[in-house]
Amino acid sequence: MQLRIERRMVPHVPWGLIFCVLGVALLGIWNLASASRPPLAPVWSSQAAYLGLGVGAVLVVCLVDYRWIQRMALPIYVLNILALIALRFVGHTAKGAESWFVIGPLRLQPAEFMKIGVVLMLAKVYHDDFRPNEPSYGLVRLWKPLLVVGVPFILVLVQPDLGTALMIGLSSLTVILFGKVRWYLVATLLACVLAGAIVIWNDYIRDVPEPRPTIVRHYLKKHQSQRISGWLDPEADLRGSGYHAAQSKIAVGSGGVSGKGWREGTQTGLRFLPEQHTDFIFSVWAEEHGFIMCSLLLVLYGAIFIFGLGVGFNARDRFGAFIAVGVVAMLFWQVFENIGMVIGLLPVTGITLPLMSYGGSSMMSVMLSIGLLVNISMRRHMF
Amino acid sequence: MTPPTLGNTTPGRELKRRFLWLGLAMTLGMGLLSIQLYRLQITRGEEYSAKSVANFVKEVRLRADRGVIKDARGTILVDSRPSFDAFITPAFCTDCAEQVIPRLAELLQWDADQRKKVEDLVRQGRRNAPFQPVPVRVDLTRDEYDRLAARRDILDGVEVAPVPHRFYRTSAVLSHVLGYMNEITQEELERLNGDGLRYALGDYIGRRGLERYFEQRLRGEDGVRKEVVNARGQKIEELNVKLGDNAVVQPKAGSNLVLSIDMRLQEEAERAFPGVTGAVVAIDVHTGFIRALVSRPGFDPNLLTGRVTPTQMAQLSRDPLEPMVNRVAAEHYSPGSTFKVVTALAAFKSGAFRPETVVNCPGGYRLGARTWRCHLDRGHGLVNGLDAMKSSCDTWFYKVADTIGLDPIGEMGKSLGLGSPTGISVVAEVPGIMPTSAYHDKASPGGYTKGMALNSAIGQGDNNVTPLQLALMYAAIANGGTLFKPQLVQRLENLDGQVVQEFQPEVVRKVDLPPAHLKAVIEGLVKVAHEPGGTAMRSRLKYMRDLDVKIAAKTGTAQVARLGAVRLKTHQMSFFERDHAWFAGFAPADKPEIAVVVLNEHGGHGGADAAPTAMAVIQKYLDLKQQDATAPPPRPNQPYTPSLSRAPTPDEGTMTRAVPPPSHLPGDEEGEDLNNATAD
Fold first, then answer.
1. Looking at beta carbons, which residues of chain A come within 8 Å of B42?
2. Cβ distance of A254 and B48 shorter than 8 Å
3. pLDDT in tens for each of the 383 residues of chain A?
4. Residue A259: closest CA among chain B residues belongs to which residue?
5. Residues of A in Cβ contact (< 8 Å) with B30
6. Please, are residues B466 and B328 in contact by the beta-carbon 8 Å criterion?
7. Which residues in chain A have Cβ-Cβ distances shorter than 8 Å to B56?
8. Which of A115, A300, B120, B300 has its CA 20 to 30 A from that of B227?
9. Does residue B30 contact residue B220 with C-beta atoms inside 8 Å?
């Protein structure tokens, strides 16, 4: 294990990636300063502290050779699983979900770190299980990746934290698809998506008199069911399930081209948006800065993804490549789902927006992931 | 197991291609987001901007003051007084149905129905306008107010606020004309707001009478104050600058109504009217403006404006005397002998009769196999036209009807406004019936016969008029043939007393009546009040002080029940079968100013039971005229304080007037001995 930065690594530092990440994070702090204006607690200063910590974490991760991380992937993974299990017993319950460890003033959300664990473990599996002369993954050969994904997925789902579970599922699925599977699996997947669409159409959209014949709806919990109906038609129940979605759409839409100005947002200032500094932070940005700055933010995020994938593209081994894919997929799905729900494209799930939302655990896990990318990029020369 | 070193080889070309695809997919994903952003922020940006403004701007309605109603001299008859009302604001009323409303029900002693009603109101409010306070109880008593104030801490979302309430200072007097107000219904709300008027649920709207007819003028225009509120409905003062200059639109007060009714004359009419049911109307003969208007029994508009309980409402609608009916215009009656002026005018116009035409009255008139009785069984002997009018000899008029038939009489009546609406429009009215042969051909089995003409000629049969029509007719005779449209409102004034709209006298038509005919009729009418044997002479002598003033008058006693073989005395009949006592006339006869009609329903005889009221009203009119000529103009805008000892309220009414009707009605005993001399 080497804990130093050699001179030959320096040309490979992904400055573009770092620049974009820091840019988004700083915009995020600026935005938080607006979202948490008086009389709310000024959380932007602690977010700045978290960013500082995050940068430290990036440095730490950079120092370690990622091949050492590769060796440690299994322990990290197991440790995270254990933490999730422990959460069942000593976790702190908030909003009906046991998802926090409370250690003094710190609140840790192990599910956030689990995401990285899964990515590491998956990458390790794909690295170890490389058989260049065989055809792509069939169902039987997929047991290892599926096991790696399945266990944490179930554990997070029963917390219940549907959002994070979804993120783990989606980013792992991206990695698995990236690892190439047989065509029939792809076909099955598409069929499943289609079936899901049909179920939703039947259970929520189709215009039939009550009681409507439902396929899945009656198995869902009420708040989950309401999220779906609230997503499909937020205006139908403005005071209830559709409130978040409708208010958030109003906030975004009222931003217009150039926005209402920093700290001038009315939806934000008058607190029509709950969770405005965590899950719905993008609506604050959109309301106050408008379409042009929203596009800028999307471009920055896009740049992070492209630079991240570039790291994987240039990686010298499969482990590095798969970590890059996993990390970028994870970031991408979070950004996509979060912004998608804020602008009414996707149902409301409790997903934070990487680098923008307030929260230490979220910031940490994103920075650790970025650290991994930087690490991989810097060690291109090793082979 | 594949050796681990295999994974360490540089990823191949195929893996790199997959990176490109993945990058493309993510770019597409970001593109998708920006398309949706474009739709929200650019395409529908305006719409969402409006929505976000609507989110935080709460419009508080500033109610306009409703116009007051004054009498001709500016005495305030209807205005507003503060009342403490309880409201629930649904948005701030947590646990409303489970906690707050039951507590409120307990404090205010509501029954289950009322509670249910309030629950529905609040639920509806929560859905439609959660920040709009819903009135749940008007006019709290002192006790209730204290109880609510003491328990305010456990009544989330309940507030008690002073609200202007309509106050009818005259109580039951003039109630049919003034009308009343009550809460707007959902359908009306939708209809009126569809027409661009801005009403809200819980608003009061004028019902009946002036309140209804002048609703839009009295109401004024509500103003609006915009306020910035946060998601919890709390007002944020420092953000009010965002609203700009037009944050407040001041309300515009409604117009004040100035009636043509003089409250002093009205009071005298109320005082002098003896009957439990009936009407008095005094009208200016040269303009058609109504100076006094009594319709009895009345109701209390204060009670009906928001405070009436279902029991009281039922009592009102079940009352056999129908206190809600305006007897001046919305009910018609057989005019009895007061109609004889029409017959006389028709007779003179036909040329077959002249005032000097003498007819022998043996106490009845034979037509075919039947005899039509004169009211005086022993007969009037030889009477000419003038004496026939004076003593109300039926036989003379039977002869007229027999000679000229029904149609000339009907035409004359119609030209004088009978059988068609007067066009008063402020209050509801019925057209009455002026029969002609065509009417009978259509309406009566067997068609028109001569007997019908005989009945009509003396104001019986199908002949029906409203007191208002009769008054206008007598006014037309007095002023030389001009039929006016009756009016109650002189002008609309704004808050400062400046005239907004002045109502001018409106002529319905000029009736072509030869002056000679009119003179003859008036001469007959004057005899009624001035010569011995005239049916109104005794009353005039008894109730008029200015005896040199000439009065033209006609009394009438309209049969309600069909005559039996034996004439029953008044006290032998049940109340609802008794005759209507009528008076119609004008004064002074030589220079007419005011026409008065009195209808004492089931009151007995015109001469005894209706004429005194009219005489008192005429005397008061003359007194007031003299007084106003010498005294300085009255101080306007004084609130009206009733000087009447008592005005019957509907509650009292139903209690004292329950069926069977009172055995002792005013005028009963007198009726006996006056019968021979003055009965018509």
1. 256-257, 291
2. yes
3. 556 667 777 788 899 999 999 999 999 999 999 888 776 778 888 999 999 999 999 998 888 888 888 889 999 999 999 988 888 877 666 655 666 777 666 677 888 889 999 999 999 988 888 877 777 788 788 888 899 999 999 988 888 788 889 899 999 999 999 988 888 889 999 999 999 888 888 887 777 776 777 777 777 777 777 777 777 777 666 666 677 788 888 889 888 888 888 888 877 777 777 777 788 899 999 999 999 999 999 999 999 999 999 999 988 888 889 999 999 999 999 999 999 989 988 888 888 899 999 888 889 999 999 999 999 998 887 65
4. B41
5. 298-299, 301-302, 305, 336
6. yes
7. 266, 270, 272
8. B120
9. no
> For chains A and B, what is the number of CB pairs under 8 angstroms?
157
Of A128, A272, A317, the CB nearest to B55: A272
Instruction: Give the total residue count for chain B.
Output: 680
Provide the CB-side half-sphere exposure for A121 (13 A, CA).
26
Chain B, residues 501-540, CB within 8 A of chain A, namely: none
Return d(Cα B379, Cα B219) in angstroms, integer.
61
How many whole angstroms separate alpha carbon A359 and alpha carbon B187? 53
| ipTM at complex level | 0.90
